[in-house]
């Protein structure tokens, strides 16, 4: 569950709650429909920190870059939950791709921070959108050398359509894959491409990217053990973005890796699993310390990478925790060019137990959806062909 902290103005004394309310450990404190009796009670709860499940707000029309990404999660979840693909399936996917491309242009740093820091909702959907977000950055870094953007982003959004339910199961599973699961995993690129064709997708860049996104240039990939230029550029972009997003996300059988470890492995594997030039564009797009990376500074503070500078090894960082473990409120901007503030180590998100107020760091482009005066029941399906009754994220 991904939690959103409730602030002053989101809740009124005596008014029925529109959502279940939790503490920072995810324990239910107040049920939907309940009331807070006094202002003193409300003030105390807000001081301690109370939260709702943030996925309940993602259906609202997006404005900020973060809202664009969260809304893309929602739209893809709705689309993929339908029993049969709608007649305009391909166009709906392309529209989500356009939204992700727009989010990157609107606030690239916020998009990367959202990918790295926001963990919630249905894993298969979140992972697909995050992969498309990273691919969008790589495509922009490639400039005129890049394939056409929308088919590549559409491929990222649908790369695992051949095993969606299994992917959600595997995200929670702690034991090794069973033989039948291994077969499904091995077959899912071709199964996904076939399912897309049956849904009306006829773009060969899109279809090849899905079918080949697990191939490796040394022939060690699957399903066909293609080599070198036999693998389409679009498939290599999607495959590398897929790997990055999978590695920085916690799953049942493994902890999340730090972004620096993942990027180190990309550099090690270039020329074997990944094209050398593509790996260089990947590092160019994300930097040595991608925005959203949690780091320890030389002075002992814990912070989050918040912006790029002319030096790839010295980005801007906002310090979250002081040396004694107390929280900086608000976070303090640090210039890591200074020796005493240099980055000492990159951390996994599992190493830092603190709620990060992204808007306090990145401003209005990191604004989450509003809570006050919003009805958070399921939205009506009027003016849309989507059946919201099948929605679950």
UniProtKB/TrEMBL annotation:
<dbReference type="Pfam" id="PF13487">
    <property type="entry name" value="HD_5"/>
</dbReference>
<feature type="domain" description="HD-GYP">
    <location>
        <begin position="102"/>
        <end position="298"/>
    </location>
</feature>
<dbReference type="InterPro" id="IPR037522">
    <property type="entry name" value="HD_GYP_dom"/>
</dbReference>
<protein>
    <submittedName>
        <fullName>C-di-GMP phosphodiesterase</fullName>
    </submittedName>
</protein>
<dbReference type="InterPro" id="IPR003607">
    <property type="entry name" value="HD/PDEase_dom"/>
</dbReference>
């Amino acid at each position: 569950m991904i939690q959103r902290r409730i602030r002053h103005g989101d809740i009124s004394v005596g008014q029925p709650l529109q959502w279940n309310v939790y503490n920072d450990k995810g324990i239910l404190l107040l049920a939907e429909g309940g009331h807070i009796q006094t202002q003193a009670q409300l003030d105390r709860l807000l001081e301690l920190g109370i939260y709702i499940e943030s996925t309940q707000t993602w259906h609202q029309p997006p404005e900020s870059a973060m809202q664009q990404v969260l809304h893309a999660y929602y739209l893809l979840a709705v689309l993929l939950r339908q029993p049969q693909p709608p007649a305009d399936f391909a166009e709906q996917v392309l529209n989500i791709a356009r939204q992700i491309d727009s989010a990157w242009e609107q606030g690239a740093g916020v998009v990367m921070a959202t990918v790295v820091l926001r963990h919630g909702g249905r894993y298969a959907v979140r992972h697909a959108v995050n992969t498309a977000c990273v691919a969008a950055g790589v495509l922009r870094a490639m400039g005129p050398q890049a394939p056409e953007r929308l088919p590549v982003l559409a491929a990222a959004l649908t790369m695992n359509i051949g095993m969606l339910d299994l992917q959600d199961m595997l995200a929670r599973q702690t034991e090794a894959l069973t033989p039948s699961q291994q077969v499904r995993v091995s077959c899912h690129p071709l199964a996904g491409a076939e399912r897309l064709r049956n849904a009306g997708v006829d773009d060969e860049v899109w279809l090849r990217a899905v079918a080949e996104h697990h191939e490796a240039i040394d022939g060690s990939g699957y399903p066909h053990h293609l080599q070198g230029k036999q693998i389409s550029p679009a498939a290599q972009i999607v495959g590398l973005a897929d790997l990055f997003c999978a590695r920085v996300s916690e799953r049942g059988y493994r902890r999340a890796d730090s972004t620096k470890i993942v990027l180190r492995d990309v550099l090690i594997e270039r020329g074997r699993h990944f094209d050398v030039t593509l790996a260089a564009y990947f590092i160019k797009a994300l930097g040595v310390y991608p925005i959203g990376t949690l780091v320890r500074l030389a002075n002992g503070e814990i912070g989050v990478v918040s912006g790029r500078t002319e030096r790839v090894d010295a980005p801007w960082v906002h310090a979250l925790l002081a040396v004694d473990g107390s929280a900086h409120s608000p976070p303090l901007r640090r210039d890591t060019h200074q020796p005493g503030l240099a980055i000492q180590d990159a951390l996994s998100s599992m190493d830092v137990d603190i709620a990060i107020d992204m808007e306090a760091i990145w401003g209005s482009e990191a604004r989450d959806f509003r809570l006050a005066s919003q009805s958070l029941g399921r939205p009506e399906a009027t003016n849309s062909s989507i059946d919201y009754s099948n929605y679950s994220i």
